[in-house]
Amino acid sequence: MRDERWDKLAKAADAVRARLAETPAVAVTLGSGLSDAFGVPDGGTRIPCSEIPGFPAPTVAGHAGEFWAGRIGRVPVLLQRGRAHYYEGRSMDDVAFATRLFAVLGVKTLIVTNASGAIRPDLSAGDLVLITDHINMLGANPLRGPNLDELGPRFPDMSAAYTPRLREIARAAASAEKVELKEGVYVAALGPSYETPAEIRAFRAMGADLVGMSTVPEVIAAAHAGLEVLGISIATNLAAGVNPDAMLTHDEVIETTRRKGAELKRLLLAILSRL
Ligand code: HPA
Predict the structure, then answer these.
(1) Which of 19, 99, 121, 178 is the most buried (most CB within 10 A)?
(2) Is it true that the peptide bond before 192 is cis, omega within 30 degrees of 0?
(3) Are the beta carbons of 237 and 256 closer than 8 angstroms?
(4) Which of 24, 21, 26, 100 is nearest to 56 (CA)?
(5) How far apart are the CA of 204 and the centre of ligand 1, in A?
(6) Using a 6 Å cutoff on CB, does residue 58 contact ligand 1?
(7) Active site (catalytic) residues
(8) What whole-number distance in Å separates Cα of residue 109 and Cα of residue 229?
(9) Is 195's C-beta closer than 6 angstroms to any atom of ligand 1?
């Protein structure tokens, strides 16, 4: 039986390919506020998501919803500015659409960035954190339903979803750039409410160091499709209850992202130059 999800992806990929000068080797997903911090590199091609047939348009304020394709250094890159979240009410197929599109286009490496709350006590607001693994607490998985055999297997291994080789490269880039890069496990919570202090204590007991509302569906879809993945998070705030006197606000998340965005950009450029 033909899977209409595959037809939709193939059509979207044809439309994007028609505007690309070459196959991108690396896709970079820029999370909350980071699209602004990263800016649009010179040259290249901007592709608004609204011009891609079948592409789910982002709805959250502050998410640009476009791709930029071009070279950064020697590397053909596809930047994703703005992403879809499950809390918006979208289907998992919509949330994973961009990642699958990358795979169909021939992208081999996915770099995902996000903003997160810091659970582990030694983490501070503003820390850059290399994601070593994740815990999926979304209660949903983008691979549920008939398997897209064109992309990958029914039961993909997740033992090394955050590619060890890329983590090594990120560590080397951070040390060369004198950027402090901590490491941690990311748990995806559904949101859009922030977590309660009791939930954060539970996540900590489970082994999570960071909490956020994105990334995990994309990484599962990427691992399924055989992409190598690197994940970097900006811990924008202490998670709920970590500082009992503090309240969480989206403004703090955006403010920290802006403050640390340039440093993350420098790190990303150093990583790209080593790929
Ligand atoms: N919780 C969930 N998502 C987040 C947080 C948080 O504390 N900070 C940034 N994104």
Answers:
(1) 99
(2) yes
(3) yes
(4) 100
(5) 14
(6) no
(7) 32, 63, 85, 87-88, 115, 213-214, 237, 250
(8) 6
(9) yes
Superfamily for domain range 4-272 = Nucleoside phosphorylase domain (3.40.50.1580)
| Residue 213 alpha carbon to ligand 1 centre in Å | 7
Tokens of 220: 């599962």
Element spanning 128, H or E: strand 128-136
Q: Which atom of ligand 1 is nearest to the CA of 212?
A: 3
Q: Considering the entire predicted model, what is its pTM?
A: 0.95
Return the structure tokens found at 252: 């703090």
**Along the 275 residues of the chain, how does pLDDT read in single tens digits?**
568 999 999 999 999 999 999 999 999 999 767 887 788 888 999 999 889 999 986 565 544 488 999 999 999 999 998 888 999 888 999 999 999 999 999 999 999 999 999 999 999 999 999 999 999 999 999 999 999 999 999 999 999 999 999 999 999 999 999 999 999 999 999 999 999 999 999 999 999 999 999 999 999 999 999 999 999 999 999 999 999 988 898 888 888 888 899 999 999 999 999 99
Pairing outcome for strands 128-136 and 181-188: parallel
- Which tokens sit at 239? 């998670």
Within a 10 A sphere around the Cβ of 65, how many other Cβ atoms?
A: 19
Closest residue by CA, ligand 1 atom 6: 117
Give the dihedral sign, CA 248/249/254/259. Answer: negative
The domain locations on the chain are 4-272
Among protein residues, the one with the nearest Cα to ligand 1's atom 3 is: 212
